[in-house]
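Take a look at this chain, tokens included, and explain the fold to me:
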Amino acid sequence: MAGLVCCGVCGRIMDSHWVHGRPGYRCRHGHTSSRTKTSPQPKILYMRSDHLLDRVQHDRGLHRHHPALRSPDPEKVATYLRANHMIIVCDQHTWTVESETAIYPLNPAGCFLAATAKIPAQRDGDQVKHEEPSRLVWK
């Protein structure tokens, strides 16, 4: 998916690179090691390729318009994005798939559960019986 992932902070194409043996993307917002930083810059943006593909392959809103993006094959996903002139724009908090005519926000996989699920203490209202006493002893 090299060349398809853009930085939402500075607008540059994100660099493809390997991090801990996995493919990923990063944007240093124009900073290189040959120049010293003259002004504060945004934090370097890192993203793992498998996390990005997971979001693209599991986003229901995107699949309503582009069902081919469900493919488990990363090559097919990249080919479809290129053929339809689509890019993925990312920043620290939001990821979107953008085409010439539409923008599709990508939700984290399983995020609908996080918004509705409650911890047991919230379900029955009795927090005391669910809390475990601390085992740490401060001296």
Remarks:
- The chain is about 25% helix and 20% strand.
- Residues 111-118 have pLDDT under 50 and may be disordered.
